[in-house]
Amino acid sequence: MSSRPATLGQLRDSGWKSVPVKEEVRRNAVAEIRAGDPLLEGMLGYDDTVLPQLENALLAGHDIIFLGERGQAKTRMMRALVNQSPYYQMDRR
Fold it and tell me: What's the rounded Cα separation, in Å, for the pair 89 and 93?
């Protein structure tokens, strides 16, 4: 992989385009679904209820609000969505 741009000019010259976070999350979800990978890893017991609704909301570009009692993996789902970003994974190496 090539080195990262160090200046704004190099970033512009690289052809990079700014994308809203919602669109990036949607693109990552589409890629995961097309690859046949699970949308969120480690979510047990939500395969028939929450995950299909979350998948539909992401594909449709809807805003998402997680509501529920304590301990129902709301934060874990949000963090798992963030971890889908290839840029996030690249920075964590």
Answer: 7
